[in-house]
Write a structure and sequence with these properties.
Blueprint (H helix, E strand, L loop, with lengths): L1 H18 L1 E6 L5 E6 L7 E2 L4 E2 H4 L3 E3 L5 E10 L5 E8 L8 E6 L4 E2 L6 E2 L4 H5 L7
Length: about 130
């Protein structure tokens, strides 16, 4: 009974080791955060949001006046494999001049209908955040 559990645990650890890409990023608070791109983990639930990675990626992000600020591009994990942030595509038009910024999970909420993520920053404030070049 214990052998299958250990095999699954080892497989999961191996998967995380080989599917993350590490990067240093400065958040809008000036902190350095080690973030990694979470790949091939679509069904993993982001506890802070109560949503799966698959559902979160591509989800619109809206500001305080219900203005669309951008859309989630990627879910990011730290060096311990913990989901800590999302990258959001902002600015641009039809894919031209878009850029990605990082928002920590404590800066993000979920709209009551669970169709959009919410933040307290305006589009202009988000566009002033440092660019994340994954």
């Amino acid at each position: 009974m214990l052998k299958p559990f250990i095999a699954i645990l080892i497989s999961a650890a191996t998967f995380l080791l080989f599917t993350t890409v590490h990067a240093e990023e400065q958040t809008n608070t000036g902190q350095q955060v080690d973030v990694s791109e979470l790949q091939e983990y679509d069904n993993f639930v982001i506890q802070a949001l109560g949503l799966s990675v698959e559902r979160t990626e591509g989800m619109p992000v809206i500001g305080p006046n219900a203005e669309e600020v951008g859309a989630v591009e990627e879910v990011l994990v730290d060096s311990d494999g913990q989901i800590v942030a999302i990258s959001v595509e902002v600015g641009g038009f039809l894919g031209i001049f878009e850029r990605e910024v990082v928002l920590k999970l404590d800066q993000v909420g979920v709209q009551a209908d669970r169709q959009k993520l919410t933040i307290s920053m305006t589009r202009e404030e988000v566009e002033q955040l440092p660019v994340w070049n994954n």
